[in-house]
TrEMBL record:
GO terms for MF: 3-oxoacyl-[acyl-carrier-protein] synthase activity
UniProt-recorded name of the protein: 3-oxoacyl-[acyl-carrier-protein] synthase II
Family matches, as InterPro entries: Beta-ketoacyl_synthase, Ketoacyl_synth_AS, Ketoacyl_synth_C, Ketoacyl_synth_N, PKS_Beta-ketoAc_synthase_dom, Thiolase-like
CDD domains according to UniProt: KAS_I_II
GO BP terms in the entry: fatty acid elongation
Key words, A-Z: Acyltransferase, Transferase
Native source species: Kitasatospora gansuensis
PANTHER family the record matches: BETA KETOACYL-ACYL CARRIER PROTEIN SYNTHASE (PTHR11712:SF347), POLYKETIDE SYNTHASE-RELATED (PTHR11712)
């Protein structure tokens, strides 16, 4: 099997536009949730929006008007990741380059806007770009066109595990020799009245609307739900040999991937965490590593009553209490299909910098969570092997294993 490495990262998150601004805010543990007028009269009017994102300034007038917000995020992240990797797409063999993106849903902003336009103004006012903008495949075309990606291109949907699943599948394209380079990650832009209301009706969202900054509190004894977020993150994956041939310096290795399904409930996790633990074990087996070698876990950590306890049981069962554990959702909220990719990027950055970000808003650890959860301030730690874990609706469990380069 061909070794896979990460050579570039691009991030657009509620913590900032760009990898370094996002990482700095996440490591500082600065929550960004705030009141969101864009959610209309949704029962929960707070969110974690990407700040100061001007699509015209970043992408130009054409992409800004023809692309849904989710595609704008994805394209921005790809541009940064490719530049950071030191790749020039004008000189690469596009047939050896792939693209795998995870998305939890669709171009929700476009879907809701165009539906209202149909109802209020009639068929003639529906944009001819409606379907290319709104379909889950929407982010793929502009990226493939701009970067000349002629290899395999896939959109992956495993709910909130989508970004993790996408990177795992992209690694397989490298490992089997199908591609030399794959752009892989996740994207989501679903901060709309309908989506917010849907999650509120499921009682999944925090109701701390009087304290938005303190609402997202993973692993905390007083947690009451997550805060909706948005964003994108993309990793440039390369075969180690290809990266070496062009003199690239890897940030980390992608050593393993494991995935399972609870086959239990449409939304709730299976309470014992048995299949989530199995996904961890599969990722370690794929990496040829053992549990005691794991230094750090970047957890899904949504801040819901059910997820955090179930995930803690899974980590404890598969790894014991040794690894440091964190969740970045105290800062970013829950970016749904982009979450796993953002957290995978943070895991790589933890390896790069020897630093584990704190779990923001963790004031009193739930006594049922018997793990070494990092809180308060970022923790310096030398990391040789780290896991990034995602748990999605419909029982999706996905885990990536990253190693120091």
């Amino acid at each position: 099997m061909i070794r896979t490495v990460v050579t570039g990262i691009g991030m657009v998150t509620p913590a900032g536009v760009g990898t370094e601004p996002s990482w700095a805010a996440i490591c500082a543990g600065r929550p960004v949730a705030a009141a969101d007028p864009g959610l209309g009269d949704s029962p929960v009017g707070i969110s974690c929006r990407v700040p100061d994102f001007d699509p015209v300034a970043r992408l130009g007038a054409g992409p800004a008007h023809r692309l849904d917000r989710v595609s704008q995020f994805a394209l921005t992240a790809v541009r940064e990741a490719v530049a950071q990797a030191g790749l020039d797409h004008r000189g690469w063999d596009g047939t050896r380059v792939g693209l795998v993106l995870g998305i939890g849903g669709w171009g929700a902003t476009t879907l809701e806007t165009q539906h209202h336009r149909l109802l209020e103004q009639g068929q003639a006012k529906v944009s001819p770009y409606f379907l290319p903008m709104a379909l889950p495949t929407g982010p793929v075309a502009p990226i493939a066109i701009e970067f000349g990606v002629h290899g395999p291109t896939h959109v992956v949907c495993t709910a909130c595990a989508s970004g993790t699943s996408a990177i795992g599948q992209a690694r397989q394209l490298i490992a089997t020799g199908a591609c030399d380079v794959v752009l892989a990650g996740g994207c989501e832009a679903s901060l709309t009245p309908l989506i917010s209301t849907g999650f509120a009706r499921m009682k999944a969202l925090s109701r701390r609307t009087d304290d938005p900054a303190g609402a997202s509190r993973p692993f905390d004894a007083d947690r009451d739900g997550f805060v909706l977020g948005e964003g994108a993150a993309v990793l440039v994956l390369e075969s180690a040999g290809f990266a070496r041939s062009r003199g690239a310096r890897p940030l980390a290795g992608v050593a393993g991937y494991g995935a399972t399904n609870d086959a239990y409930h449409a939304a709730a996790p299976e309470p014992t965490g048995a299949m989530a633990a199995a996904a961890i074990r599969r990722a370690l087996a794929d990496a040829g590593a053992s549990a005691h070698e794991v230094d750090h876990v970047n957890a899904h950590g949504t801040g819901t009553r059910l997820n955090d306890v179930t995930e803690a049981r899974a980590i404890r069962a598969a790894l014991g209490s040794g690894p440091s554990v964190t969740s970045v959702k105290g800062v970013t909220g829950h970016p749904l299909g982009a979450a796993g990719a953002i957290e995978a990027a943070c895991t790589v950055l933890s390896i790069r910098d020897g630093l584990v970000p704190p779990t923001a808003n963790l004031r009193r650890l739930d006594p049922e969570i018997d793990l070494d959860v990092v809180a308060g301030t970022a923790r310096p730690q030398r990391i040789g092997l780290a896991l990034s874990q995602s748990l999605g609706f419909a029982g999706h469990n996905a885990v990536l294993a990253f190693t120091s380069p």
